[in-house]
Design a protein that fits this description.
Cathepsin D, subunit A, domain 1; about 450 residues; 6-stranded mixed beta barrel; mainly beta; 8 helices
């Protein structure tokens, strides 16, 4: 959804620098030695993708709460996005309809904010001549001003800036305060903003990097975060800062190094890719790569082979049923070999729920086909044209840990725990699920050939 966007930063208001282009409910706090882990429940939203007046699939987003400003924290819901580097939320200065659907940051009630220009120099907040940042990504754009602000993973009402920054839940970061937001994706989704978690080098300046700043200002914090996507909407997904969550692991973590961390992406080398036991030709030379992206719904495939991969993953269903859930119908596995680690996805991870009924005009014969949900990926230098996106389907099956200092990514099979079942009895659920698809019917799409 947000992945692999280009971030175009334009410095306005007479700035002399050229345009710079760069690739782009309650929190639980657990003691972990001398540091703390912060576990943030993630809510989930489904948004339908409509073609010819018919829902063909759903985009999804996972988002959690953060708090901006002191001594009166302002609450925002954000996507924690490993595919981008900047933190952005709507500003009260934004009057567009897309902003009116969201919480907006009110500069006047924050005593911790410092308004800055593109060089990080303090400016008068009342100035009408401010540098402006324009951010463009795959499905939309925002523009706004910059402030140096305190951002917390936990509510710290009434605390001084100094006290808040002494905790392991707060940091100071250059924040983009949007004065304009496009209708997509912000009108479609409930989340207010985006908190980028890519590596430092993807950011325009290190002080834009949330986790980089968190590590620099909280040296006692373990420089890792872990992502768990629940296999059931009954239970919350989570992101854990300051380490990983052992409750979410069904197997030991296996690590693989980040490839070319200077690019800023959580990118890994693919030794090979197998579909149904057969090696994908494009990756036989061992130079395919994958980016682990928490801001994308679908498995991303290099565009040059997307149709071929669709064909390899499609399967005909015997007896021409009226409807079935294709996630439950057998199909080939797709396996990503990253050396000591192999990540394997089955049809339950990559399939569209509803099938396709193909009717041949000349003979009136019909065939019921199950298909994959894939995202074509276009990349150019410095990224490879052989780039895959290991997004929600992989993250839902494998608990994924991101080691900021070690520049490595760890994978372990995910599990649900007894802790989740206890949550079902809680009157105040820590998460919400919006737009849940109607599974009462899985009527197939009909096409004529």
């Amino acid at each position: 959804m947000l992945a692999l966007r280009c971030i175009l930063v334009t410095l306005l208001a007479g700035a002399s620098m050229p345009t710079v282009t760069a690739l782009m409910k309650p929190q639980a706090v657990e003691e972990s030695g001398s540091s703390k882990k912060v576990v943030i429940p993630l809510s989930k939203q489904y948004v339908p993708v409509i073609r010819k007046n018919r829902v063909v699939t759903h985009r999804t987003a996972y988002y959690g709460k953060v708090f901006i400003g002191l001594p009166q924290p302002q609450e925002f819901s954000v996507v924690f996005d490993t595919g981008s580097a900047h933190f952005l939320v709507p500003s009260s200065k934004c009057k567009s309809e897309s902003c009116s659907h969201h919480n907006r940051y009110d500069r006047d009630i924050s005593q911790s904010a410092v308004d800055i220009d593109h060089q990080g120099v303090a400016v008068d907040k009342a100035s009408q001549d401010r540098d402006e940042v324009s951010v463009e990504f795959g499905t939309g754009a925002i523009s706004g001003e910059i402030a140096y602000e305190v951002v917390c993973l936990k509510h710290h009402a009434g605390k001084t800036i100094e006290d808040a920054l002494m905790t392991s839940e707060c940091t100071k970061i250059r924040t983009v305060l949007a004065t304009e937001m496009s209708s997509e994706p912000f009108m479609s989704f409930k989340f207010d903003g985006v908190l980028g978690l890519s590596l430092d080098s993807l950011a325009l300046h290190p002080e834009f990097s949330f986790f980089g700043q968190m590590k620099r200002l909280n040296p006692s914090m373990e420089p890792c975060f872990g992502v768990f996507l629940s296999s059931s909407d009954q239970f919350p997904s989570e992101i854990t800062f300051g380490g990983h969550d052992e409750r979410r692991l069904a197997s030991a973590i296996q690590w693989t190094p980040v490839l070319r961390p200077e690019l800023g992406y959580w990118q890994i080398q693919l030794k090979k890719v197998m579909i149904g036991g057969e090696e994908v030709e494009l990756c036989k030379s061992g130079d395919c790569v994958a980016i682990i992206d928490t801001g994308t719904s679908l498995l991303g495939v290099p565009r040059q082979i997307t149709q071929h991969v669709h064909w390899l993953l499609a399967r005909s269903v015997p007896n021409n049923p009226d409807e079935i859930d294709c996630r439950q119908h057998p199909g080939p596995d797709i396996t990503f070999d990253i050396g000591d680690v192999q990540l394997s996805l089955g049809p339950e991870e990559y399939s569209r729920p509803a099938g396709l009924r193909v009717i041949t005009n000349s003979t009136k014969e019909t065939e019921f086909v199950c298909r994959a949900s894939l995202l074509p990926v276009d990349q150019s230098e410095p990224l490879s044209a052989k780039t895959w996106l290991l997004a929600e389907p992989v993250l839902r099956k494998y608990y994924t840990t991101f080691d900021w200092v070690g520049k490595r990514i760890g994978f372990g099979l995910s599990t649900q725990s007894k802790h989740d079942h206890a949550m079902l009895n809680m009157s105040n659920s820590p998460h919400e699920v919006l737009g849940t698809p109607d599974t009462s019917t899985l009527k197939p799409t009909v096409v004529y050939v």
